[in-house]
Amino acid sequence: MKIISLAYQTVPGDELVEAKSFFVTPQQGILGDCRGAKPEEQITILSQRHWDEALSEVGCPETPWTARKARILVDDLELSNFFIGRRLKIGTSAVLELVEETTPCKKMERVCAGLLRALARDWRGGGRFKVLVRGVFNIEDEAFWLPPKHAQ
Fold first, then answer.
1. All domains of the chain, ordered by start, with CATH?
2. Tens digit of pLDDT for each residue in 32-50?
């Protein structure tokens, strides 16, 4: 899968700021992002395919992905309970671990009626990851699941 876009938030409640690259660490998550101090909430990854499916379902196709408040948008990412605990390598060195499914917040209903329900199915709201190995990655970098033996 490929990284399509990156965004961070310096203060909770503010708009997301798009970026060309991220530096991530286990201690801080995304450098400069307000969510980094909580390891289980460091990074949310959203699949463009799932986002588009949800928007199409509720009739809001022009809604930007940043309305979801995820930090990384990838072209396609299969997520399920099967992947919890698995590790995702991004770029040449960063490694993240899938912690849980992201539960979309009620604000999604203000974005578009029905969006909360559409995102709540089949991991469409994305996955929450923590940083295991520091690294830098950029838009267009590849991301891939490491073999399960490395996830233990």
1. 3-146 (2.40.33.20)
2. 999 887 888 899 999 999 9
